[in-house]
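Quarterly update from the structural biology core.
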Amino acid sequence: MSDDATIAAERIEVLAEQAREAARTDHPDRARECVRRARRVAERHRLSLPASFERFVCDRCDAYLCPGRNARVRTQSGHVVVTCECGSQARYPYADSQ
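Predicted structure, tokenized:
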């Protein structure tokens, strides 16, 4: 990875942490702006967002999702359904360990 890509990856991590903090402290607009900037940096440097960050971001409205505040999380037969307050849904598989 080049120096520019390394710096970009670090910047994405910082923006992810700032988005998480802003969402926790009831600043959804600031969190949304951090998410948009992180996506923009990732696009410019052809990087992907970290999976831990990607799962907590709404694809439609760019909101940072906090379960119980602006997102609903449910399990259904082998997958998790995360519903944002804008109505967008994301589904993620999980392994049922029984």
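The longest helix spans residues 3-24.
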